[in-house]
Design goal:
alpha/beta, Arc Repressor Mutant, subunit A, globular
Length: 225
């Protein structure tokens, strides 16, 4: 028997959703564990140490945001991948969760194939934040040389454009909030508006000529290629 592709904890208070997600992830080769509320989620996370947690936001006992917050305080869960399941009108909780370090979110009603695809993408991540050269097929981002090349051709980017691109590319698929981008690229002592990010993203798209930065409306941006 081949080893599982990874261990995934699925947390939702709706049995039908647990069954659907669990079935599709097991078919995709993952080992799954189920929890029906926030308290059980914490217990099973400690017991099984999953590689990824699919976490509903609105749950009894503890909300998904509370569970995420508690897990992120524990050293063994600081790098655990977390995907939130959110209702379409749950934007505030969605943003709170991303602020706590969640990797992605998916809106209900759930499309199983999309969920599996997003989870596969998270598991495929090979770039780590301490790697100096990030490679995505023909696209290469060299953080030491401050250079970007596509199919061997250098693409000239201004420093802030490069800083923004390498930040997003450091964690492909993860949504970076606007405030987070402003703090990490421009710093807390420089006052710039949200429009500044939009302008830099547009310039990067034009220069690289690839659809690699996705706008998450009302939230921020993420790198996908």
């Amino acid at each position: 028997m081949e080893p599982a592709a990874g261990k995934i904890l699925i947390v939702d208070d709706e049995p039908d959703i647990l069954e659907i997600i669990g079935y599709n992830l097991r078919n995709a080769g993952y080992e799954t564990f189920l929890a029906r509320d926030g308290g059980e989620a914490l217990d099973k996370a400690r017991a099984f140490h999953p590689d990824l947690i699919v976490l509903d936001i609105m749950m009894p006992v503890k909300s998904g945001v509370e569970v995420c917050s508690e897990l992120r305080t524990l050293p063994e869960f600081k790098e655990t991948r977390i995907i939130f399941l959110t209702a379409l009108n749950d934007e505030r909780s969605e943003i709170d969760g991303l602020n706590l370090g969640a990797d992605d979110y998916i809106a209900k009603p759930i499309k199983p194939r999309l969920l599996v695809s997003r989870i596969n993408a998270l598991f495929r991540r090979t770039s780590k934040t301490d790697e100096r050269v990030l490679r995505f097929g023909d696209l290469v981002i060299d953080r030491d040389r401050y250079s970007v090349s596509l199919r061997g051709t250098d693409i000239p980017l201004a420093k802030k454009e490069f800083d923004l691109l390498q930040l997003l590319a450091s964690k492909p698929g993860r949504v970076f909030l606007r405030n987070e981008i402003l703090n990490q690229v421009w710093g807390t002592e420089v006052i710039v508006g949200d429009r500044t990010i939009d302008v830099h993203v547009r310039k990067i798209r034009q220069k690289v000529d690839m659809d690699l930065i996705t706008t998450v409306k009302g939230v921020g941006y993420k790198f996908e290629i």
